[in-house]
Amino acid sequence: MNVDEFERYILTTATQWSFLRAVDTVDKTDYAVKLRLHVDTECFIQVYANVQKGIFSFALVLNRSRIYGRDNEGGTWHRHPHGQPDNHDVSPEGRTEVTLAQFLAEAQKVLKDKGLL
User: Fold this and answer.
1) pLDDT per residue over 18-40, tens digit each?
2) Helices 100-113, 3-14: inter-axial angle, 10-degree rounding
3) How far apart are CA 79 and CA 88, in angstroms?
4) Helix boundaries (H) for the chain
5) Exposed e or buried b per residue across 49-78, where buried means at least 16 C-beta atoms within 10 angstroms of its C-beta
């Protein structure tokens, strides 16, 4: 998948989730793209991909701080758990590769559990 295809995939997937209000492409090069999927003015999901290096990152951000995330830096997926977002969960569940849709479902649950949706 090239960077344009990945960006289209993100945009298409985001339209299927009613809690997302807007999507902005923050940065884009020939090999990498960063997008923000806005929940409200203080909350967004940041999606980053470097398709050349195979690096993907999903982060739920509230008030400028990651509160939950998943990424595959170094080739292995791991989770940044809600409540401990600076930690790396490398359990079998934490190492599970997720699609954007799966991450959005997880993020939606975190936001509902916090009473933000």
Assistant:
1) 999 999 999 999 999 999 999 99
2) 40
3) 6
4) 3-14, 100-113
5) bbbeeebbbbbbbbeeeebbbbbbeeeebb
Q: How far apart are CA 110 and CA 82, in angstroms?
A: 7
Report yes or no: 44 and 22 within 8 Å, Cβ to Cβ. Answer: no
Rounded CA gap, 50 and 30, in Å? 9
Report the side by side order of strands in the sheet with 65-71.
22-28, 32-40, 43-50, 55-62, 65-71, 78-80
Does the reported pTM lie above 0.85? yes
Alpha carbon distance, N-terminus to C-terminus of the chain: 33
Q: Where are the beta strands (DSSP E) in 1-117?
A: 22-28, 32-40, 43-50, 55-62, 65-71, 78-80
